[in-house]
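Incident review: delayed structure delivery

Summary: a single-chain prediction request sat in the queue longer than the usual turnaround. Root cause was a stuck worker, restarted by the on-call engineer. No data loss occurred. The affected request and its eventual output are reproduced below so the record is complete for anyone auditing the incident later.

Affected input:
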Amino acid sequence: MYLVFRCDCGRAIYAKEGTARKKCVCGKNLKVKERRIFAKTETAEDASEMVRKLQEEKYGGAVFTTADKI
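Output delivered after worker restart:
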């Protein structure tokens, strides 16, 4: 089981259930038990997709291009 939550900086993050702390890319060390859980998923892939959706809701859609599309 994976938990999806946000850092104080606004970034969505996921961690495996039972993890005590998770470090955000902003540098803040978060206690998972103290965070508001937005979603629980069975797999890391589902958690990653949920993080992507939360990030898009907050910051708008991202546009990624690959070399074959240029």
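Verification: Strands lie at 2-6, 12-16, 21-23, 29-31, 37-41.
Action items: add queue-age alerting; document worker restart procedure.
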